[in-house]
């Protein structure tokens, strides 16, 4: 191909700029994608350490490693890190940046410098979050939800953490705007809307949520900060404010945020399955529209986090109803993936195995979500370990596994190297087994009534807690092996060919790793994204 | 115009779309406190009316007039910029900056007047007031403060544009940038048009 | 199965719980068994040439409409046990539940206060939930009831205990360092024993 010429690989050293500077000041979307990759993996790892320590705390009755105050700060930081610093920026930041322009046949995103600025905002947010642990009155202890009025009164340092999330939100908004414009304005000639790979559709739907929902939580957190410093009274019951309104404003963003995490994840899975089934995706339009439907209906369901808060009966009924509705487009996607397998020619490469695990775990996460959405059941299960199990299945088993699926799918393209499939598969096995061992017992614990955010467990819960704790070690071992395998491949791996998986989308038509300008000549698109014949 | 001209056009279109999206996010940014305003106004209708009556309608109206006029000068500046009339662009930009600053000065006097009367959150004389009034003033300071911050950012942006103009920028991407600054300025203006009746007229 | 068999409301929830769980398990099995079946049947060694299929409007319709019907049914199941929670019977025994960092105080109509919740068997109780500081949540798993305890507003719950015994009371809304020790017991006793306890100030 004419794209394979004497290209300068994007990873090659740039003349005249030393060391990391040629990365952290680069406006190349691929380099920015790699910057995000390194940063989100660092964040993920520190979140895992916190998670495993938290689990360990419940091993024996009473304080095992730490007191309640430390535990409370730990789950707060774990939640903030895993959500705002890992899973929300992960898929758009890494794969959106690296592959969105390539997949639509563009040289870069619409605003490359703004893109770099977004990453800097991300790093600034991360730095402020770290600062909130080290300086001031001690790490925040409110939970990642920052519920008023507790967050107004606690003596710990909450404002700095809130401001960190605000800055991260800014980063997210700018990325969203950038991607929307990129999709609208930068598509290669012939790349009609329905010739875009479905990953692009999912990033596009996500970008709208990022741009429009994030500002709401931004101001809500500013209101809490203003409340802490000046006492403006809007969430303070002592002054006539209503803490329930805080919850509304918080979830108006934070529920759609769940779709920021899961939509790109679904997009990744939609890329992987056709490649390894060697078959065009089943129901392209249904999958594309269901992304938009999820983004739309998903913004009407925030109240399902508040069924027992005491708002009106009607509100409860409506929010429950919409919650059930949003399950339909998600189900449509799952059915289309499975139908894609039908009469395919399936190879069990590592990314495909990840995709299978994703469907397994995500279906558990989604269906337990339905159980939580049913009003009378929610009353019992709300605020228990059942919820902790549910959201880990969705965010980690769903979004997290899909992110790692994407990492194993695109790793050869991003790095130009092949990883050991055998070690990758062993790691996946550990991940999958450890995951279920860690989180499935949480459903049982929740049904038996154990509340979340408890630093200690009553005796009747010890058995399943112990199983879950042991699971966290298996999972951690899997994570270490997976990352080690990839790092090893980065330095020692075999050179990757242009198209190791025989994929049909545009990124597989250019060298691995891609050249700085992606395409020597902007391609002209004459066929659909998954044409294997 | 040649090749670069075409590219500048495409870039201009992208920048314009980006700016519109940014303005949409700004609208959502103000949504949260305005929703709070609506909820509390419904709950404490009487207190809100009483508190709103304490605001000086004259200063509010004056500020509205100032900001509307500045929108006009801004629109004319963008127009002049597109026609390449360098002098007029500079003059109109300067006028807009001055009007924006006047807005901020008036706002400053309004705030300090309230604060000197003990009308601010957590003041000693404040605790005796009705709950709805406390919340009204809390929201007043938050929303007008946030808006004032946007005006301030706008003034800074326009100052940069003015300096670029004085450093003789006029062709290339300058008109598109100016247009985007104009869009932002109008958005800040429109947000004020929403805030004004909530606090000053519904008293 | 939910262990919430000790009150009328818990029993009602349990029915919905069983039905909804059954539907979800069935859906889970359907999805995953079909997936595995296809994966095995169409593996490359057995099925080297894939077919050229790119969709089917009929199927799309089917798997939109059928899940839609199922979820509306589940919604309805969940509704039944929720609606009844709204209004307590007029003759219910009123108990004020006061949440504070980090303990529960139960106040009865005659002014009696207690840190454990004594309740008569088979008589409706209405809980008025109030908080003096932050949000808590009042949860008796065995009764299947839970309600947030929000400062500045009064939420209510009710239930008829139908089983004697001592049941856990938890706080399920995070409220600070003592959140996990904000525990109490609901002790359900015969009417006679209760009157004795209640009368003895
Ligand atoms: C080895 C990996 C992990 C372990 C061992 C772990 C463990 C836990 C545990 C035990 C809790 C509940 C604490 C409590 O309620 O007492 C928790 C909370 C949470 N986890 Fe994880 N987790 C892991 C990975 C993740 C990932 C990947 C995500 C997101 C993508 C995540 C997001 C959260 C969130 C949002 C919370 C709620 C925090 C809060 O209550 O404020 N976790 N985690
Ligand atoms: Cu509590």
Structural summary, described in words:
The complex is a heterotrimer of chains A (about 525), B (about 200) and C (about 200). In chain A, about 65% of the residues lie in helices and about 0% in strands. Chain A is globular. Chain A starts with 20 loop residues before the first helix and ends in a 38-residue tail after the last strand. By secondary structure, chain B is mainly alpha-helical. Chain B has a single domain, classed as Four Helix Bundle (Hemerythrin (Met), subunit A) (Up-down Bundle), CATH 1.20.120. Chain B contains six helices and no strands. By secondary structure, chain C is an alpha+beta fold. Chain C folds into two domains: about 80 residues, Helix Hairpins (Orthogonal Bundle); about 110 residues, Immunoglobulin-like (Sandwich). Helix content of chain C is about 35%, strand content about 25%. In chain C, the strands form two sheets. Chain C has a five-stranded mixed sheet. In chain C, strands 4-10-9-6-7 form a five-stranded mixed sheet, with helices on one face. In chain C, a hairpin with a 2-residue loop joins β1 and β2. In chain C, α1 packs antiparallel against α2. The longest helix of chain C is centred in the N-terminal third of the chain and has 34 residues. Chain C is elongated and about 85 Å long. The model of chain C has no long low-confidence stretch (mean pLDDT about 90). The interface between A and B is large, with 37 and 36 residues. The structure holds protoporphyrin IX containing FE and copper (II) ion. The site of protoporphyrin IX containing FE has 27 residues of chain A, from α2, α3, α13 and α15.
């Amino acid at each position: 191909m004419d794209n394979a010429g004497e290209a300068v690989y994007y990873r090659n050293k740039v003349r005249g700029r030393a060391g990391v500077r040629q990365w952290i000041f680069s406006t190349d979307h691929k380099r920015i994608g790699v910057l995000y990759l390194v940063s989100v993996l660092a964040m993920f790892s520190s979140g895992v350490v916190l998670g495993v320590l938290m689990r360990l705390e419940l091993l024996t009755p009473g304080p095992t490693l730490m007191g309640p105050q430390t535990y409370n700060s730990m789950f707060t930081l774990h939640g903030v890190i895993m959500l705002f610093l890992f899973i929300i920026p992960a898929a758009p930041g890494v794969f959106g940046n690296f592959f969105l322009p390539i997949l639509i046949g563009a040289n870069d995103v619409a605003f490359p410098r703004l893109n770099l600025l977004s990453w800097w905002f991300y790093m600034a947010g991360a730095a402020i979050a770290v600062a909130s642990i080290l300086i001031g009155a001690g790490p925040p202890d409110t939970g990642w939800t920052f519920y008023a009025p507790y967050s107004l009164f606690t003596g710990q340092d909450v404002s700095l953490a809130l401001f960190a999330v605000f800055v991260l939100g800014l980063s997210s908004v700018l990325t969203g705007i950038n991607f929307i414009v990129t999709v609208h304005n930068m598509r290669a000639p012939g790349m009609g809307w329905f010739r875009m790979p479905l990953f692009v559709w999912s990033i596009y739907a996500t970008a709208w949520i990022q741009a429009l929902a994030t500002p709401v939580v931004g101001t809500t957190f500013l209101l809490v900060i203003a409340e802490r410093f000046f006492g403006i009274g809007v969430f303070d019951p002592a002054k006539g404010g209503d803490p329930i309104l805080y919850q509304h404003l918080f979830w108006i963003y934070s529920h759609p945020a769940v779709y920021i995490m899961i939509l790109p994840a679904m997009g990744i899975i939609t890329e992987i399955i056709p490649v390894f089934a060697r078959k065009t995706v089943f129901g392209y339009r249904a999958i594309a529209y269901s992304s938009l439907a999820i983004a739309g209906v998903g913004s009407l369901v925030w109240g399902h986090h508040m069924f027992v808060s005491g708002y009106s009966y009607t509100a409860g009924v409506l929010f429950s109803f919409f919650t059930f509705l949003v399950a339909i487009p998600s189900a449509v996607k799952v059915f289309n993936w499975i139908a894609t397998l039908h009469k395919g020619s399936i190879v069990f490469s590592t990314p495909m195995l990840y995709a299978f695990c994703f469907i397994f775990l995500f279906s558990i996460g989604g269906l337990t979500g339905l159980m939580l959405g049913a009003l009378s059941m929610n009353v019992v299960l709300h605020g228990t370990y059942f919820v902790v199990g549910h959201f880990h299945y969705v965010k980690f088993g769903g979004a997290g596994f899909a992110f790692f699926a994407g990492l194993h799918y695109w790793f050869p393209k991003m790095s130009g190297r092949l990883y050991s499939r055998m070690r990758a598969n062993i790691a996946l096995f550990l991940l999958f087994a450890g995951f279920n061992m860690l989180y499935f017992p949480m459903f049982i614990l929740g049904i038996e009534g154990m509340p979340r955010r408890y630093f200690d467990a009553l005796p009747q819960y010890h058995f399943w807690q112990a199983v879950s704790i042991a699971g966290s070690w298996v999972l951690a071992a899997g994570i270490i092996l997976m990352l080690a395998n990839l790092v090893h491949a980065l330095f020692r791996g075999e050179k990757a060919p242009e198209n190791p998986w025989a994929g049909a989308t545009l990124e597989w038509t250019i060298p691995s790793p891609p050249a700085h300008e992606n395409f020597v000549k902007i391609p002209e698109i004459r066929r659909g994204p998954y044409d294997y014949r | 115009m040649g090749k670069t001209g075409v590219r500048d056009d495409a870039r201009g279109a992208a920048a314009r779309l980006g700016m519109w999206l940014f303005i949409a996010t700004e609208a959502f940014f103000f949504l949260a406190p305005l929703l709070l305003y609506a909820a509390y106004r419904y709950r404490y209708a009487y207190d809100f009316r009483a508190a709103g009556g304490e605001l000086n309608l004259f200063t509010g109206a004056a500020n509205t007039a100032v900001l509307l006029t500045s929108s006009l000068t801004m629109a004319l500046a963008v127009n002049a910029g597109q026609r390449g009339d360098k002098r007029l662009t500079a003059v109109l930009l300067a006028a807009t900056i001055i009007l924006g600053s006047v807005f901020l000065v008036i706002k400053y006097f309004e705030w300090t007047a309230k604060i000197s009367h003990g009308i601010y959150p957590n003041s000693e004389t404040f605790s005796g007031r009705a709950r709805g009034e406390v919340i009204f003033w809390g929201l007043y300071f938050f929303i007008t403060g946030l808006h004032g911050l946007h005006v301030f950012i706008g003034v800074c942006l326009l100052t940069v544009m003015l300096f670029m103009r004085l450093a003789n920028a006029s062709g290339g991407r300058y008109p598109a940038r100016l247009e985007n600054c104009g869009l932002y300025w109008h958005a800040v203006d429109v947000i004020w048009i929403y805030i004004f009746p909530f606090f000053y007229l519904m008293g | 199965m939910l262990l919430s068999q000790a009150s009328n409301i818990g029993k009602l929830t349990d029915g919905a719980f069983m039905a909804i769980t059954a539907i979800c398990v069935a859906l889970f099995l359907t999805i995953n068994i079909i997936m595995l079946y296809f994966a095995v049947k169409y593996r490359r060694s057995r099925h080297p040439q894939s077919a050229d299929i790119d969709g089917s409007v009929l199927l799309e319709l089917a798997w939109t409409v059928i899940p839609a019907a199922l979820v509306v049914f589940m919604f309805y199941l969940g509704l039944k046990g929720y609606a009844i929670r709204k209004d307590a019977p007029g003759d219910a025994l009123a108990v004020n539940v006061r949440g504070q960092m980090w303990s529960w105080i139960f106040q009865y109509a005659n002014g009696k206060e207690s840190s454990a919740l004594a309740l008569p068997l088979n008589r409706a109780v209405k809980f008025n939930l109030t908080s003096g500081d932050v949000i808590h949540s009042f949860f008796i798993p065995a009764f299947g009831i839970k309600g947030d305890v929000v400062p500045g507003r009064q939420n209510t719950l009710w239930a008829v205990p139908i089983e004697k015994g001592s049941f856990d009371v938890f706080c399920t809304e995070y409220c600070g360092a003592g959140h996990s020790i904000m525990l109490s017991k609901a002790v359900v006793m015969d009417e006679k024993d209760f009157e004795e306890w209640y009368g003895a100030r």
